[in-house]
Design goal:
Oligomer: single chain
Shape: globular
Number of domains: 1
Distance between the termini: 34 Å
Radius of gyration: 16 Å
Number of helices: 2
CATH superfamily: Mitochondrial biogenesis AIM24
Structural class: mainly beta
Helix content: under 10%
């Protein structure tokens, strides 16, 4: 699957190019436009319990699944708030913990779950007791309110982040 991040910065949009049979999973309401040969359906992805868990972290219960049913297809996705979009390749060896509304879309093989924080982080992080955990193999597209600043950490290195 190929993609382009259009209009980088405050008004970023994701353009995904799908071959027949390929699909992308997106946050509910993210689809702006799609080719007529794309099938759009809502999915709980992981069942009722995972959907309820996502709701506890402030995410939506359902995802949109957009699948090319024939021929080359295009899908345009946009986050719910102003900000940038960043693509990250996951190889299955680590997980990402992201803030509410941070997940925009992902390829097949990406799982979106909920993780409960400890008492101290839950009370003082500003994000609550539940955060979004992204894992698996594939490409995940994250969105933010504002710019995205990547910090590369060495193995075992930690960084405390206050995202406001």
């Amino acid at each position: 699957m190929k993609y382009d991040v259009l209009y980088e910065g405050a008004f970023a949009m994701l353009k995904v190019y799908l071959d027949p049979g390929e699909s992308v999973k997106a946050e509910m309401g993210a689809m702006v436009a799609m080719s007529p040969n794309v099938e759009l359906k809502g999915t709980a992805d992981g069942g009722v319990m995972r959907g309820l868990g996502r709701m506890l972290s402030g995410e939506k219960f359902f995802f949109q699944e957009l699948r090319a049913i024939r021929g080359q297809s295009e899908v345009l996705l946009s986050p719910g708030s102003l900000g940038d979009i960043q693509a990250i390749e996951l190889d299955g060896s680590y997980k990402l913990l992201v803030q509410k509304d941070g997940f925009l879309a992902g390829t097949e093989g990406i799982q979106v779950n909920t993780k409960m924080q400890n008492l101290t982080r839950g009370l003082f992080s500003g994000e609550g007791f539940f955060i979004v955990e992204i894992s698996g193999r594939g490409t995940v597209f994250l969105s933010s309110f504002g710019a995205i600043h990547a910090i590369n950490l060495a193995p075992g290195e930690e960084m405390i982040i206050d995202n406001g």
